[in-house]
Amino acid sequence: MRAAGGARGVTEPGWAAPLHAAVLERAGTGALLDLGCGDGEFARYATDRGATVTGIDVDPGAVAAATARVPEATFLVGDAADPPPGPFAAAVAVQVLEHVANPVAVLRAAPAPVVVATVWGRAAECDGRLFAEALAPWLPPRPPRPGPPPLTDPDRLRKIVGLAGLEVVALVEVECPIDHADADALVGELLTSGIGLHAARRAGPAAVRAAVLERAADLRTTDGGYRLHNLLRVVVARRPDPR
Hints:
The chain is α/β, with parallel strands linked by helices and 243 residues long. The protein is 33% helix and 20% strand. The longest helix has 11 residues.
């Protein structure tokens, strides 16, 4: 999964647990193909609840980590658009479609009657946008995005699923808050990220910290931590009966 679950300052259980629960509820606990399995975070969740998981990822390092994390599952190095044949009861793509060159090809190739995929919500639906907003004075302007809307747009997501020859059964919204224990946890990892380093070089770490904490003031919790609310979407699709 392409996210920072388990990173320093993020409380356990992982922030993606509600998303994993929503995916598994719709994919079932049979034989699952985990497309773009990453380091096995979803595979671990699903296996612990009775599923038999085969994962595939293009990154050999991720596959090695997944194998160590979920030794009872099967993991392969390969392209999600060229998966093993199965049979599988369902295929899942957890936070993958936004990171592949051709999401239509990945969905079309999924060798299962049911396909469950997830994407982030729109920028306005995720508090993670606060970092870019807080640092905007020190970041280069973002050029207009060419081409069609991103997959975070529900209509675009539905269209991509249809182009893959699948029928949308459901489009579900899932809330996944990310908790940071304190201000140091909220700001610390930002200062090692690309936008954080860029802003810090221009304004200094203290200015970056002050800007982020000011922007996040309304997200502070009673115990001194910070809760960032995020909306994600789960699309459930099925392959039409060829008869």
